[in-house]
Amino acid sequence: MFKHILVPSDGSELSKQAASKAIEFAKESGAALTFFHARPIRQGYFLGERALFQRLEQDEFEQLGQAEAKEILDAITASALAAGVQSNSVSVASDAPYEAIIQAATDNGCDVIFMASHGRRGISGLLLGSETVKVLTHSRIPVLVYR
User: Fold this and answer.
1) I need a surface site. Which of 18, 24, 94, 131 has the fewest CB within 10 A?
2) Which residues form the UspA domain (predicted)?
3) Cβ count near 71 (within 10 Å)
4) Which of 63-72, 89-98, 129-138 has the lowest mean pLDDT?
5) Contacts for 38-41 with beta carbons within 8 Å, 24 or more apart?
6) Residue 104: Cβ within 10 Å count
7) Any idea which fold 4-146 has?
């Protein structure tokens, strides 16, 4: 079956639930995990589920993004460790998270991407877009979607 699973996380409650299920899945299948977070490059993009309402110096913005990525990834990596599942974590800056997810899966030798879907439909799905749909559309690596 799968030997190395990439698990993207944006820090949302749904992505935390998906990470938890991915840990269970990896434990049952004996797979290793790579947790992944894409940080925004430019202000005006979201950091996790929070928008930045004030302009920051670019260095301060990058530090804030790195700190949030570390917080998100450390929490799920600790859960994997507690479950006895081998894992590591990666974060990169990208304004195209779906591209960064696919690249991270390729770079880390992952054979599946396990990610959450917020299940947005209709006009909200059209306007907000979906990184999951973009990954599904563009990835040559299999994708498991948790909803």
Assistant:
1) 24
2) 1-147
3) 12
4) 129-138
5) 38/8, 38/10, 38/91, 38/92, 38/93, 38/94, 38/97, 38/100, 38/101, 39/65, 39/66, 39/68, 39/69, 39/91, 39/92, 39/93, 39/94, 40/65, 40/93, 40/94, 40/95, 41/93, 41/94, 41/95
6) 22
7) Rossmann fold (3.40.50)
